[in-house]
Give the backbone structure.
Amino acid sequence: MIFFWGIRAALTKTVDFAIEKCPYCESTGTTSGRYFSRHFHIFWIPIFPIGKTGYVVCSQCHSKRDTHLMNPGLREAFLQEKKTAPRFRFWQFTGLALPVLFFMVGVVAVTFNEKYAGKYIEDPKSGDTYFCTQNNGYYTTYRVDHISRDSVYSHLNNYEIADREKLSSINRKVNYSKTLLSFSRKELLELYKNRRILKVERW
Ligand SMILES: [Zn+2]
C-alpha cells in the first residue's frame, strides 16, 4: 500500500499592508500577508499542527515573498502580525481526535446494548433474536416465536459459528429449525446474567 503523508498548511490570517509597494510590478496597496498553520497529515487527514508560517503576496502580479525578500519595515510589520496569527485550528487535530471519538462511540454503544438487552429479556417480544454462546465455545442465535405467561418459545438456529463477530451472518429466517424450545423467563435472565446471551436484537 502506498502511504501518503506529509505537511500541509491551513490559512489562518490575512493582513493588508496598504502602504507597501510591490518590488516586481510596482503597484501600491496590493501587498498582503498570509499566515498559515502547518500540520502533519496522513492520507490528507490532519494529525497535529506543527507551527506557523507565512509570506506576503501581491494581488496584482501574484509574486510571493519570504521574509528575506522583504524590506526591513515590511518585515517588521509582517513578523509583528505573525505573533497574533492563530497557532492552529482545532480540526488540525482530527487524526488524534478520531480514535478517541471511535472509542467513546464504542463505549456508548456497548452500554446502550447492555441496558436494552436486559430490558428486552425482562419483556420478551415475538421476533426478538438472542445472540448466544454455547457450551462447545461456538455461537448461535435463537429467535422468539411466542411468549406465554412464564415461558418464552423460540426457534434455534441450525447453524453455529466460531467467530462471534460474524454471528449476524447466520441470522437468516431459513436457518431456523421448526422445533420450538421453551425457556422460563427466569432461565433467560440467568443466561443473560451469566453472559450466555450476549445481545438481543429487536426491530
Ligand atoms: Zn506585484
Observations:
- DSSP finds three helices and nine strands in the chain.
- The mean pLDDT is 91.
- The CA atoms of residues 1 and 91 lie 26 Å apart.
- Residues 22, 24-25, 27, 30, 58, 60-61, 63 surround zinc ion (CB under 6 Å).
